[in-house]
Design a protein that fits this description.
CATH topology: Methane Monooxygenase Hydroxylase, Chain G, domain 1
CATH superfamily: Phosphate transport system protein phou homolog 2, domain 2
Number of helices: 7
Shape: elongated
CATH class: Mainly Alpha
Structural class: mainly alpha
Helix content: over 70%
Strand content: under 5%
Order of helices and strands: HHHHHHH
Number of strands: 0
Length: 226
């Protein structure tokens, strides 16, 4: 098994990707905190910090391209390089989803309505955990942890559907009964938007775990490929 921490060939891109992953985890954490605490300033910080994540994506790509110029790369090392290149844009997209959540947090806070998040905090906790474990599986080459991550995605998908349906029902009920006190259309749409972004973070985390499978055992499981 390849040791990502000791491989001289991948040191530069590995370190860049590690730093990028920490920024992405922090962005998701703070975006959700800004949402549940109605903290507009914190949400703005998340949006402003996205430039650093985008910069790391470019740096990792450049490092990968430089390494691929070496025609003597062994197959096992090449798998690491290819996976790093694929995980790189995944992290950038997760950062974008954190920005989307932060923007929704700002919009919800400005509405000054009473708090109603449905099961969103539960979904948020599951998403933070799946992201953390997916990244740990990749950097530690933990096959068992990667398999565990892959088994959790359905739960988050179900929460996305459940929360979205509940919000829609609540909005319709409020409109029909002329009781907008529970949840406004604007707040409801932002909650649905947050659910979708959390669901995408979970999907991308699952994709990272799939790359762990590819690096450790050379198996491509995406789209049921072998």
């Amino acid at each position: 098994m390849i040791d990502l921490q000791k491989s001289l060939t991948t040191d530069i891109s590995q370190n860049q990707l590690s730093m990028m992953s920490k920024l992405v985890e922090k962005a998701v954490e703070l975006a959700l905190k800004s949402l549940f605490d109605s903290n507009i300033l914190l949400a703005r910080d998340v949006i402003g910090a996205d430039k650093a994540i985008n910069s790391y994506e470019i740096d990792v790509d450049k490092s990968i391209y430089a390494m691929l110029l070496d025609s003597q790369i062994p197959p096992d090392i090449l798998r690491v390089i290819v996976s790093i290149q694929k995980v790189n844009p995944m992290l950038e997209r997760i950062g974008d989803h954190a920005v989307n959540i932060a923007e929704s947090a700002m919009n919800i806070a400005s509405l000054r309505e009473k708090t109603m998040f449905f099961k969103l905090p539960d979904m948020a906790d599951l998403c933070k955990k799946i992201l953390k474990d997916a990244l740990a599986s990749f950097f530690k080459q933990d096959l068992k942890l990667a398999q565990d991550v892959l088994s959790r995605d359905d739960t988050i998908d179900q929460l996305n559907v459940s929360i979205t349906n509940e919000v829609k029902t609540k909005i319709v009920s409020s409109i029909m009964c002329a009781e907008m006190g529970d949840i406004s259309l604007e707040r409801g749409m932002e909650i649905i938007r947050i659910c979708k972004n959390l669901e995408r973070i979970a999907d991308l985390s699952t994709n990272i775990a799939e790359e762990t499978m590819f690096v450790t055992i050379g198996r491509i499981i995406k789209h049921n490929c072998e």
